[in-house]
Amino acid sequence: MTGAAVKRGTTMANVKKAIGVMVALSIGVPALAGPAAQPVAKVRAPEVIFAKVCGYCHSTRVGPVLLGRNLPPEYIEMTARSGRNAMPSFRQSEISNAELAGLARWIAHSRPPVDGGSH
Ligand code: HEC
């Protein structure tokens, strides 16, 4: 929701009510599903995903160095979703859209590895 989308007539009470509903939904749904339900998938931190998944190749020179190259985030996301030659593609079940968006931004703004990425 952007600021521009909020109508001028919106009162604070309405905003609070809306937030209340959102909170109730986000807490209520897993609670209703019962204790046997899967825990809600957490969004993993970009550095964790990079170290565990991408770094397997991209920090070992199996793949090209990605850090510190100012690669466009859209390009990183696209490559991760579709794969490229020896690089496998990653599905949403492996890396969610939210995780991939954060990961792509993190890689795009990263600094070059100190030793050229050998660890
Ligand atoms: C199994 C090894 C492997 C893994 C894991 C892997 N990659 Fe790759 N990646 C490669 C290889 C090899 C290439 C070079 C492909 C080519 O151009 O032939 C590549 C290329 C790329 C490129 C293009 C780089 C350029 O210079 O244009 C991007 C972006 C990329 N990978 C992102 C990722 C991300 C993000 C992840 C983690 C989600 C990841 N890769 C995981 C092997 C891997």
Assigned CATH architecture of the largest domain:
Orthogonal Bundle
- What ligands are attached or bound here? heme C
Query: Gyration radius, to the nearest Å?
Result: 20 Å
- Binned strand content: under 5%
The tally of strands reads 0
Low-confidence stretches: none
CATH topology of the largest domain: Cytochrome Bc1 Complex, Chain D, domain 2
CA-to-CA gap between the ends? 41 Å
Which structural category do the helix and sheet elements fall into?
mainly alpha
Question: Main β-sheet: number of strands, strand sense, barrel status?
Answer: none
User: In which range does the helix fraction lie?
Assistant: 40-55%
Total number of helical segments?
4
Descriptors:
single chain, mainly alpha, 119 residues, 0% strand, binds heme C, Cytochrome Bc1 Complex, Chain D, domain 2
